[in-house]
């Protein structure tokens, strides 16, 4: 009886999942078997395994990896410091704040900052290095992506650090471990779940970035995300776009299962 | 006999930020190979003393010596001290073996040696064969033993125990008290045990430091502290006691509850106001005529080993009696006690003053 009532409450969410998650996935799968003329075919899949698309996939993974790695490198120490500060909640808010601003707005802001007559070049000018082409480079793409994704890396790591029992750190020190050994043998392994969650939250969206590649990298960086967008909106080859999307979904599933919490086992 | 002092606190004060002092000008010595207990209510500073010895925090003022060396700012990982934490603080990502081996691995000991030492430590705490268990598979009592094994395997000079038994149920706690005491005797390592449980302290210790409000109220053997509490706080905290105001008429004569009684305490001013302590188990129920005190039974509680009987005398003083004899509520009874059962406490006397007074009148009696 009680479980029936509980099932009733689930209906809105179930509807949502079916309409906006399950159905689109099947639609994508369906479209991926049609070519541009509407014939049922496996050609799209064959085409995906040609050098053009494989290279694109490789570069997507490479950039997503770079973005995740740099985010982690910056986020972990930041989260660690954050747990030690006095006004944790305030600092946390300041870090989350940028995520409330529209992605497009942030991208345009960086167009201004990194542009030929922007702030970055003005600074380079005054310190004597001279203005450089910053926009439309790999550097600017990775930089802006890291900027955008970093809160999603900091939050889960911060949470897992907060949950860490401080007496475990005392215990490690007590048993003779230096600060570094304590970090390596106790703190990091015990916050690995947060690191994994953060990597998921960054790597997966980074894999299908398309707006930033266009705006900041000026289409010099072609990722799978850009390709999907191009096929659907420019070439109108929905079949090929859908096929790439299928591979993206598979990649995401693989990453999820690789970095997933092994709570069941541990 | 010269004392073998391992830890010495010299006028140590600890203050967090601008708050009140958690420890206020505390000095004491810890001798090698004994079982010490720091006893006091929560917030009395006992855990702070432990953290100062372990090196998790530094004193605001004063000096801490370890084997004669000042160690105020020596970090925790460089001290010959290991701690058993209140919540055990076992590493959840490591199994029992790796938890115990943690300290040895840091010392870069050889694998074969580590294996041998861990096995030995686990044998010491009766956990042979548990090496490959995960921590979450262990019960509270077993975790406790792992925590102890993890401390002793490093062969420290001192083991600090921060209320390690407080999370266990009563039966297990009593069992562990015996085991800890036994372990300390076998290892010969100095144990410093923190607790707020007076029974635990009395049962296990060679020496007890009773703390309150950041100061050591009294230090001594369990028997000293139980029989000769120095003030109202100690008397009240260590065991149950009847504490009533009284007046010293002369040496060995005290007045309380409206009557004069023979006692064994000396060294007071004539007519000095004092506190009188009589332990509930020293009061004996007898007939009204034979009793030194006449009281009315107010309530009765069956405690298993004895009855706890609460009585009031005609002045309204409460008298707690532990007796195997039963009494009826409302009944008038007499209470009998020996002169030795009366313990007289001078008001606001410090430990040094108390010791001096005790020495002074024992010299007098020696001359006789």
TrEMBL record, chain A:
Transmembrane segments: 12-33, 61-83, 90-114, 134-158, 201-218, 238-258
Domain of life: Bacteria
Keywords, in A-Z order: Cell membrane, Membrane, Transmembrane, Transmembrane helix, Transport
Lipid bilayer topology: Multi-pass membrane protein
GO biological process, alphabetically ordered: transmembrane transport
Domain ABC transmembrane type-1 as annotated: residue spans: 57-259
Broad class of where this protein is predominantly found: membrane
Localization: Cell membrane
Presence of the UniProt keyword Endoplasmic reticulum in the record: no
Keyword Zinc: no
Name this protein carries in UniProt: Spermidine/putrescine transport system permease protein
UniProtKB/TrEMBL annotation, chain B:
Gene3D superfamilies linked: 2.40.50.100, P-loop containing nucleotide triphosphate hydrolases
Catalytic activity: ATP + H2O + polyamine-[polyamine-binding protein]Side 1 = ADP + phosphate + polyamineSide 2 + [polyamine-binding protein]Side 1
Protein known as: Spermidine/putrescine import ATP-binding protein PotA
Entry annotated with the keyword ATP-binding: yes
A single MF term (Gene Ontology): ABC-type putrescine transporter activity
SMART domains: AAA (SM00382)
Oligomer and partners: The complex is composed of two ATP-binding proteins (PotA), two transmembrane proteins (PotB and PotC) and a solute-binding protein (PotD).
GO cellular component annotations of the record: ATP-binding cassette (ABC) transporter complex
Family statement drawn from the similarity comment of this UniProt entry: Belongs to the ABC transporter superfamily. Spermidine/putrescine importer (TC 3.A.1.11.1) family.
PANTHER family: SPERMIDINE/PUTRESCINE IMPORT ATP-BINDING PROTEIN POTA, SPERMIDINE_PUTRESCINE IMPORT ATP-BINDING PROTEIN POTA
SUPFAM superfamilies, per database record: MOP-like (SSF50331), P-loop containing nucleoside triphosphate hydrolases (SSF52540)
Annotated EC: 7.6.2.11
Matches recorded under InterPro entries: AAA+_ATPase, ABC_SmlMolc_Importer, ABC_transporter-like_ATP-bd, ABC_transporter-like_CS, Mo/tungstate-bd_C_term_dom, P-loop_NTPase, PotA-like, PotA_ATP-bd
């Amino acid at each position: 009886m009680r479980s029936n009532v509980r099932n009733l409450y689930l209906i809105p969410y179930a509807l949502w999942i079916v309409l906006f998650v399950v159905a689109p996935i099947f639609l994508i799968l369906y479209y991926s078997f049609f070519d541009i003329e509407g014939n049922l075919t496996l050609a799209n899949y064959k085409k995906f395994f040609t050098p053009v698309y494989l290279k694109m996939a490789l570069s997507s993974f490479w950039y997503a990896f770079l973005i995740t790695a740099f985010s982690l490198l910056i986020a972990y120490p930041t989260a660690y410091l954050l747990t030690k500060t006095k006004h944790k909640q305030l600092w946390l808010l300041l870090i989350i704040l940028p995520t409330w601003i529209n992605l497009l707005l942030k991208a345009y802001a960086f167009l201004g900052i990194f542009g030929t007559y922007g702030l970055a070049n003005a600074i380079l000018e005054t310190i004597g290095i001279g203005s450089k082409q910053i926009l439309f480079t790999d550097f600017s793409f990775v930089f802006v992506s890291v900027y955008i994704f970093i809160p999603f890396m900091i939050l889960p790591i911060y949470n897992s650090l907060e949950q860490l029992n401080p007496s475990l750190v005392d215990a490690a020190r007590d048993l003779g471990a230096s600060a570094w050994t304590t970090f390596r043998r106790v703190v990091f392994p015990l916050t690995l779940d947060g690191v994994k969650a953060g990597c998921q939250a960054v790597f997966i969206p980074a894999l299908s970035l398309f707006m930033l590649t266009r705006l900041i990298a000026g289409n010099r960086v072609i990722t799978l995300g850009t390709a999907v967008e191009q096929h659907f909106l420019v070439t109108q080859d929905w079949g090929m776009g859908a096929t790439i999307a299928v591979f993206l979904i598979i990649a995401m599933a693989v990453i999820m299962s690789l970095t997933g919490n092994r709570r069941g086992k541990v | 006999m010269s004392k073998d002092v391992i830890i010495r606190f010299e006028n140590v004060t600890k203050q967090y930020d601008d708050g009140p002092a958690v420890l206020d000008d505390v000095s004491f010595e810890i001798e090698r190979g004994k079982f010490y207990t720091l006893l006091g209510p929560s917030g009395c500073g006992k855990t702070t003393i432990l953290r100062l010895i372990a090196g998790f925090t530094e004193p605001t003022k004063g000096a801490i010596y370890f084997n004669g060396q000042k160690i105020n700012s020596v970090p925790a990982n460089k001290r010959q001290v290991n701690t058993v934490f209140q919540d055990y603080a076992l590493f959840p990502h490591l199994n029992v073996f790796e938890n115990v081996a943690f300290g040895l691995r840091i010392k870069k000991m050889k694998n074969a040696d580590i294996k041998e030492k861990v096995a030995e430590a686990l044998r010491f705490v009766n956990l042979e064969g548990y090496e490959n268990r995960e921590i979450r598979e262990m019960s509270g009592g077993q975790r406790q033993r792992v925590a102890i094994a993890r401390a002793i395997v490093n062969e420290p000079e001192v083991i600090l125990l921060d209320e390690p038994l407080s999370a266990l149920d009563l039966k297990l706690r009593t069992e562990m008290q015996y085991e800890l005491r036994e372990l300390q005797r076998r290892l010969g390592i100095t144990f410093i045990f923190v607790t707020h449980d007076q029974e635990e302290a009395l049962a296990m210790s060679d020496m007890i430091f009773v703390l309150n409000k950041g100061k050591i109220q009294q230090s001594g053997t369990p028997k000293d502290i139980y029989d000769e509490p120095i003030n109202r706080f100690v008397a009240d905290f260590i065991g149950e006691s009847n504490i009533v105001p009284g007046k010293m008429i002369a040496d060995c004569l005290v007045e309380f509850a409206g009557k004069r009684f023979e006692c064994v305490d000396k060294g007071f001013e004539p007519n000095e106001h004092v506190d009188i302590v009589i332990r509930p188990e020293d009061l004996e129920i007898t007939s009204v005529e034979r009793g030194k005190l006449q009281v009315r039974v107010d309530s009765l509680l069956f405690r298993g080993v004895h009855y706890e009987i609460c009585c009031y005398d005609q002045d309204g003083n409460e008298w707690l009696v532990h007796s195997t004899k039963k009494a009826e509520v409302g009944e008038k009874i007499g209470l009998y006690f020996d002169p030795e059962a009366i313990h007289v406490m001078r008001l606001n006397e410090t430990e040094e003053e108390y010791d001096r007074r005790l020495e002074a009148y024992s010299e007098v009696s020696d001359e006789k």
